[in-house]
Each structure stands twice: as structure tokens, then as C-alpha cells.
């Protein structure tokens, strides 16, 4: 729950301020902004396919750590972004790796809950997981907005900026705040994963039955109906 909370603090904060950076600071239209964030959606689809393919073979610990590291890296790239640099230097890699944390943590977390929770508790556990992600979104965007406004007011007070026109440092400061959540998330995810998920192993594996017996459904499908002697006698008498 804590890992999902911090991941959404970092990911949604990056997403929010990346859009505002492109539209308000760079002056791009919504269409041009979407085009620069399009790799995020492509990467998200690939991540979901990848998780579905490897979740039965890779321990959940590795997926969580890799995911949180990817989102933190995206925040760091936009915290040091240079407006005059080419898109492929900061914008493209940031959009590619940002969504890794959300996809890996969400998929692994929901499967982990389905594995450890009792059948009658799975709906409640899933609701708590979803609630933590929404709370993480609210807290992350709120805290980074406070940072953004504080830097903007400081720049306006010193005469190096305007309150109505935030400077580049304001957007960078907001991304540094998102990166801070990522840095809280990455060590905590690593420590919590080692402490609590080390014995979990693969969450998507299929376990065989204890005695290696086949299911009743498989047995029914494999059964063949033997011919009845009485039926053969009736058929012979009817022909005669």
C-alpha cells in the first residue's frame, strides 16, 4: 500500500507538471503536447503486455523496484530539463520510463493482493489499494503545487520573474518535488520488497494440486463411454 501511495505521488505529479510545462511554459498547443507525451501511452501498452508475459516467471520484488526506479528517473529528467535541448534528450526518455512505475506496481500489487487475501476479503483489499493510489495522487499534486507557487512568488519578489508568468525554475522545482517522492518510494520499495515480498516469489504462477490429481472436469472429458452388452443384444434382435 505504501509503495503504491508513493508511486502515484511521483507519477501523477510528473504527469501533471509535464503537461503544464509543455503548454504554459513552452507555449505548445494541446495537440503538440499530446504528441510529446504519446510515447508514454505506447510504453504503457508495452509494459502491460510485458507484465502479463513475465509475471508468471519473475518475482514481484524485481518488478516493483524496476518500476519505481523508472518513474523516479522521469522526474529527474524533467527536473534538469533544458528548453533549448532537443526533445530526444529529456522529453522522450522521460515519457518512456515514467509509466513503468505505475504499470509494474499496479499490476504486481493487484496480483499480490489477490494471492495473499482471503477470497471474501479480496474486494476490500482491492478497494484499499485503489484508495491509496488516489490519495497518493492528491497528496503528490498538492505538495508539488505548493512548491511551484512558493518558487514563483520568490522569483517575483526578487524581481527575476512575474507572479503571472512562472519561470523555468518553478517547473523544475515542482519536478524536484515529484523526484523527492520517487526517492522516498525507491528505497522504501526496495526495503519493503526485501522484508515482506522476498518469500512471495512469483505471484502469477499456476500451482499444481497437492497429489498431482487431475481435475474432475479433465477426467470427465477423458472418459470414454464403453459399449453396453445389453444394447448390442437389442440391436441384434431388432435387425433379425
UniProtKB/TrEMBL annotation:
Sorted UniProt keywords: Membrane, Transmembrane, Transmembrane helix, Transport
Membrane topology qualifier: Multi-pass membrane protein
A Pfam family of this chain: MFS_1
Record's subcellular location: Membrane
A GO cellular component annotation in the UniProt record: membrane
Annotated region (Disordered), positions in chain: 207-240
InterPro entries documented for this protein: MFS, MFS_trans_sf
Protein name: Uncharacterized protein
Species assigned in the record: Sphagnurus paluster
Gene3D superfamilies cross-referenced by the UniProt entry: MFS general substrate transporter like domains
PANTHER family for this protein: MAJOR FACILITATOR SUPERFAMILY MULTIDRUG TRANSPORTER MFSC
Keyword Zinc-finger: no
